[in-house]
Amino acid sequence: MSVVHPTQDDPVALALSEGIGGQRGEHAGRHRWWTPVRILLLLTAMTFALGMVQKSGCFDDTWEDGTGRYTQMCYSDLPYLYTARGFAELNWPYSSDPQVRARYEVMEYPVGIAYWAYGAAWVTHWLNGSPSLDNRYVAPVSDLWGMPDVHREIRLYVVVNAIGFAILALASTWLLAGVRPRRPWDAAPFALAPAMVAAGLVNWDMVAVVCVAGALFAWSRGRPGWTGVMIGLGTAAKLYPLFLLGAVLILAWRTRRWGDLALASAGAAASWVLVNLPAYLSGPDQWKVFWSFNSGRAADLGSLWLAASDVFHTTFAVSTINSWSWLLFGAWCAAVLVVGMLARRTPTFAELGLLIVTGFLLVNKVYSPQYVLWLLPLAVLARPKWRDQLVWQGAELVYFASVWWYLGTFLNSGAGDKHPFYSLAVLVRVAGELYLVALVVRSWFTLRREPQLTETESNVVAV
């Protein structure tokens, strides 16, 4: 099986290769050990290591410098939630114990992330010698951060999570490289993603990212049931993988393979229920917090709603945002369905997934800095061109920098509480995402040959 080299069809890769010998020739040899996938895994490891270095400024002072975490853009939720959600005392996230609930807020994330965070806390305590927790139980929560054992565990907790995320990133690269066996280098923009350097350690979103990569891999292998299982597992960690079933619907409709949709839906439902069951049975009221938290949330960071509030100096009611967000998202999905059905060629799973998830992020009431990771595996397969990836990720990095400066109050204008530069950065981020969407839709209707258009070749190879 011949492998397509990036210098053979990517102008940016070709231009960059001039300093190391130029385009790969017809008679180029193959290394016995350094296969494309192994090189990609090495590049992923280097990228994620660079992301750890990027957080070193905050790590050195255990995230205690309130200004430094914004100026150095090294903020992470992990150290703060270790003490704020009871992990320093190894409390089960869905405990209904009155004493626990009196001390700690419920983990506001879906169960997949809560399980991961809890498991990482167990590993952290074990690595720290399993210290006695008696003195922590009687101390005010606000005093935990200053305890020597806890202070050491906070840093250790970040390290444990970082190593786990790195493993998930490596698994994601392996899965994405396997979607199109003749084109493993399509996963290179993921392996070398600046977005992963910047946002990989902000929160636990890598748990959902690897599930999306798994769904893309399973679909390319003609396994709709397993695609659904991965979608369900991803939805148990973050809501957005659920929307990939919309991509399955469009593809099933175009090909009249309704059995694929049924298998994917059944797999997603079964895996989601199984993963959620332990949390629901142990604390149904605590399990519901994620849903109530999000429904009651006002316009928040990075959203067009917040930018509009800032520009027009108004406040949108939560009920208004909730209603219009879902109405606009529904209209977006309907448009994707129509365009996807009218396309001159069959869209790929990654392309449809990219459009649907982008629509959700455009109208959602919040766009946290790490949400760029949601689009990353979909984007690199939908548009595996370095120019397109650099334009899009460059726009995302503009927003990534601005959000920390906004939180650090460095973007305040002389016009009171307005933040025009931050609102502009939100629009830059939106423009970058719409740029990818426009390129994908255009490719569906043009006759120009696009090398990444089909995932069927991977199905043929796998047989």
From TrEMBL:
Q: Which domain of life does this protein belong to?
A: Bacteria
Keyword Repressor in annotation? no
Q: Where are the transmembrane segments?
A: 33-53, 109-127, 154-179, 191-219, 225-252, 261-281, 326-343, 349-368, 389-407, 419-441
Keyword set includes Hydrolase = no
Write out the annotated subcellular location. Answer: Cell membrane
Per UniProt, the keywords (alphabetical) are: Cell membrane, Membrane, Transferase, Transmembrane, Transmembrane helix
Which InterPro entries does the entry mention? GT87 (IPR018584), UCP010361 (IPR016570)
Q: How does it sit in the membrane?
A: Multi-pass membrane protein
Q: Which family does it belong to?
A: Belongs to the glycosyltransferase 87 family.
Question: This chain belongs to which protein, by name?
Answer: Glycosyltransferase 87 family protein
The protein's organism comes out as Nocardioides panacihumi
